[in-house]
Each structure stands twice: as structure tokens, then as C-alpha cells.
Specification:
Blueprint (H helix, E strand, L loop, with lengths): L3 H14 L14 H4 L5 H11 L21 E5 L5 E5 H7 L9 H14 L8 E6 L1 H13 L5 E6 L3 H7 L5 E8 L2 E2 L1 H12 L12 E4 L13 H13 L3 E5 L24 E6 L11 E6 H13 L6 H45 L3 E3 L7 E6 L6 H12 L4 E2 L13 E5 L5 H23 L1
The structure holds pyridoxal-5'-phosphate.
Pyridoxal-5'-phosphate binds next to helix 6.
């Protein structure tokens, strides 16, 4: 009997010959636990209520009565002088349970959003779900795919929040190094070929997905150009991988126009995209959205029906009203301002890095986002320097690069510095302290 590996390789070869290979069987990506999820009867009724005619007599759900809510009105004054006021029916529904997939009017706006910014092929065959930030969408998607010991493809370095989701599965990390444009396609292909060429194990499991954070990657700040995305997409297609496109910094690039996404080139239905309002409206809203092929989104929805029920109605209504108030042109202008805000901070941090770290460390100018990814020269492992002597001795805090490495036990010379929040004078002070730390650390190693 042929082993799993040879069967899968065979199907891989067939797929390669028949390109483009549209994904036809999503159950291949779904683990047994997720296959066991069934629609919740009460949540399905809630979905029906959202679209039912207004004269329906509703005796089904145990929704608390709006008259018992202690709030009469919620009023937000905006920094541009305008206001958002929630009252009456709108406030009542913002304070009430809602459909699992999201507040219907917001979902409609989000569909327009995807059409406007990504215009993916076959948007009608994709579903959108409002999630508790991008994080929860990612977590649900990963839980839907992974089995213990599965291989996963990630960039090196990788957003630590995703490593935290993956680690409990004790996966085999197929980690692919980044260069200044993000994950390298040829290294990705090499790594997948290497994995499949391990001949002593005929029961190798296929990796099911590839995780990427293509715009202003956390922590490296790289922005992946569309040419590279197309190459990576081709590799994903050859190896039948889903692409988890985690893109919360999509509007925080420092280019002239929005990057073209994986979603926008997804002719085969293999991209699941995670957007977020955290970095642009407010992270406390805990609001993001996941866009993907309907069969997979249905499993995510069933998971949410059993876990959070739905993302906060209040957060969704606030975001909806804000989007309505801004309009799409206003939204784009708003993003330009945010971009400019962070770009000034990026420039400032880059100046203080030049001032204090010349010769002591290396970094590339981030093309977006909130972070400077710094390689310390002559200190092969920065962990104790950052976590012990930095925090307790010098009173300065960075993230040691270990947090972003699939194997955090290996020595790592990188640190992540964030320019998003600290006052500018603190950045200068912080980098002066880092320079001292590096000098002292090198002396310590010479002893
Ligand atoms: C790459 C990346 N993905 C996801 C998240 C989580 O975002 P959210 O607040 O939307 O859950 C973050 C937050 O820092 C992030 O940097």
C-alpha cells in the first residue's frame, strides 16, 4: 500500500500539471475536531432573525429586553469635531446579541471594503466574518487545520502571537528566511522540496498552510511586493497550501499606494485573509474580519457559535458608524494621516539608531508598521542582555528576537524596538542605553 507521502506527492504532481489548480476539496484542510462542529440551533435562528421580515413574532431566543439596558445614549466626539451618537433602535441592537458572522450592515460595508481595496476574483463565493481582532480569526483558522505534529510553513522571523497558537501542536516548523522583501519564494520551494525528500519516513504529513504577514511584517517591517506574492502563490499552488494572509498593518506601509494583496490574486480559492481595525481605529474595540472560501468560513462560524457567540455588537456598530461617517474617500485620507504619523516616528527612530548604534548593530529601514528589527553585532545571544541587564540594570525594555523564532531556545542576536508609542525623547534615551548595554555586554563576554 503506498504511504501517505507518495499518494500526496502523486496528487501534487497531478495538480502541477493541471494548473491553475482551483481548490475543490476544502475538507482536506479541516481536522477531525473541526469536522465534528455542527450548526448551533439557537445561533442559526439568530441568523434567520437578522434577515426576517419586521412583522415576525419572535418567541424563540432568550434575548434580554432592551428596556433593562442601563444606557440611553452613547455619544463619541471625534477628533475632527464631528460626533457619533447611538440611541434608540441602533443603541438597543448595539447592546444586544447578534448573528455570529457579524452585524449585517457592517458585513455589507466590509464586503464593499474587500471589493474596493482587493477586488478578489469570485468575491461572491467568499464569506466574511467579524472576529475578535485578527488574532481570534487566526486562532480559529489554525485550530481548524492543525493536528498534533503537523508541519507548518512560517517566515523567519514570525509574529509571536501566531507562534503561541502553533506551539501547543508541537508542529514541525518549516521556517523560511526573510530578506528585505519578506519570505523568499525560492527558499520556500527549497524548504518544501527538502521536507518531501526525507525518504526514510513514508508517513510524512503534508503541510496544509503557509502563514504570512505581508505588509509591514511584525517584527521585521518588510513589505512584500506583488511580484513576490505571485511567486509565493505559485509555490502554494504547487504544494496545495492555503495562504493565511495576516495583514493588520495593511494601511501602515510607507509607500504611495496600498499594496496588492494575496487575496486580490487568489484565482484558486486558497487565501484566507485577516484584516483588523486594531492598528487604525482602536485595538480596544477588538474588531477584525476574516475573508475566505465559504466552506472554511462556515467551520470558523460554527466554532464561534460554540465559543464567543459573536464579536462585540457595540464595537461593530461603532466601527460601522465611523466607516459611514468617513465614507471611503474619507477613510483613505484618514489612513494617509495615520501613515504619516508612524512614518515620522519611524524616521526619528532610524535617526537615533544611527546616532547611537553605528557599528554596534545593523538594521534595515522598515517599509511600514511600528518596529525596527535590529541585529546586534558581536552578541550572539541577546536574551539576558535584554531581559536581565536591560530591564533591571539600565531600565530599558525591548523584545528579544527569540519571541519571533520558531525555536526560542536557540541563541538569537536580534531585538525588536517599537516606535509606535514612546515619546521621542525616550526613544533617544532608550537607544543611548541600548548602546551602553551592548558595549558592556561585549566586555562581559571578553572576560
Ligand atoms: C502580525 C499581527 N497579527 C495579528 C495581530 C493581532 O491583531 P488584532 O488586534 O487585530 O487581534 C497583531 C497584533 O499586534 C500582529 O502584529
Amino acid at each position: 500500500m503506498p504511504g501517505m507521502r507518495s499518494l500526496w506527492q502523486l496528487s501534487g504532481q497531478i495538480l502541477r500539471k493541471q494548473k491553475p489548480s482551483v481548490v475543490s476539496d476544502y475538507s482536506y484542510f479541516v481536522n477531525d475536531l473541526a469536522k465534528g462542529r455542527k450548526p448551533s440551533p439557537l445561533r442559526e435562528l439568530m441568523k434567520m432573525l437578522a434577515t426576517a421580515s419586521s412583522d415576525i413574532i419572535f418567541l424563540a431566543e432568550g434575548l434580554p429586553h432592551g428596556d433593562t439596558h442601563p444606557f440611553n445614549e452613547a455619544r463619541f466626539s471625534l477628533k475632527d469635531g464631528s460626533h457619533i451618537t447611538l440611541s434608540g433602535k441602533t443603541l438597543t441592537s448595539a447592546l444586544q446579541y447578534g448573528p455570529t458572522e457579524g452585524y449585517p450592515q457592517l458585513l455589507q460595508r466590509l464586503r464593499e471594503f474587500q471589493e474596493r481595496f482587493h477586488n478578489p476574483p469570485g468575491l461572491d463565493d467568499r464569506d466574511i466574518i467579524a472576529t475578535v481582532g485578527a488574532q481570534d480569526g487566526l486562532c480559529k483558522m489554525i485550530e481548524l487545520c492543525m493536528d498534533f505534529g503537523d508541519p507548518v510553513v512560517v517566515p523567519a522571523p514570525t509574529y509571536s502571537g501566531v507562534l503561541a497558537m502553533l506551539r501547543p501542536y508541537r508542529p514541525e516548523f518549516l521556517s523560511v528566511k526573510e530578506d528585505k522583501y519578506g519570505m523568499c519564494p525560492y527558499k520556500l520551494r527549497d524548504e518544501l522540496n527538502r521536507y518531501w525528500s526525507i525518504s526514510h519516513n513514508s508517513m510524512l504529513k503534508p503541510p496544509k498552510f503557509l502563514y504570512l504577514n505581508p505588509t509591514a511584517s511584525n517584527p521585521s517591517g518588510t513589505v512584500m511586493p506583488i511580484e513576490r506574492k505571485k511567486e509565493i502563490y505559485e509555490v502554494a499552488s504547487d504544494f496545495n497550501l492555503l495562504i493565511l494572509e495576516d495583514d493588520p498593518y495593511y494601511f501602515l506601509h510607507f509607500d504611495d499606494k496600498e499594496p496588492q494583496s494575496f487575496l486580490s490574486i487568489d484565482t484558486e480559492g486558497r487565501v484566507i485573509r485577516f484584516d483588523s481595525f486594531s492598528k487604525v481605529f482602536s485595538s480596544g474595540l477588538r474588531l477584525g474580519f476574516i475573508t475566505g472560501p465559504r466552506p472554511l468560513m462556515q467551520v470558523v462560524e460554527y466554532h464561534m457559535q460554540a465559543s464567543v457567540l459573536h464579536t462585540s455588537s457595540l464595537s461593530q456598530v461603532i466601527a460601522l458608524k465611523l466607516l459611514d461617517q468617513l465614507g471611503w474617500d474619507g477613510f483613505i485620507k484618514y489612513m494617509e494621516n495615520i501613515r504619516e504619523f508612524y512614518m515620522k516616528r519611524r524616521n526619528f527612530m532610524s535617526e537615533v539608531a544611527k546616532k547611537h548604534l553605528q557599528g554596534k548593530a545593523e538594521w534595515t529601514m522598515p517599509d511600514g508598521g511600528m518596529f525596527l528589527w535590529i541585529k546586534v553585532n558581536g552578541v550572539p545571544d541577546v536574551y539576558d542582555m535584554v531581559m536581565k541587564r536591560g530591564v533591571h540594570g539600565k531600565g530599558v525594555m525591548f523584545v528579544p528576537g527569540h519571541a519571533f523564532m520558531p525555536d526560542p531556545t536557540l541563541p538569537c542576536p536580534y531585538i525588536r524596538a517599537s516606535y509606535s508609542l514612546a515619546p521621542l525623547e525616550d526613544m533617544d534615551q532608550g537607544f543611548a542605553r541600548l548602546a551602553e548595554l551592548i558595549t558592556e555586554e561585549k566586555k562581559l563576554h571578553l572576560k
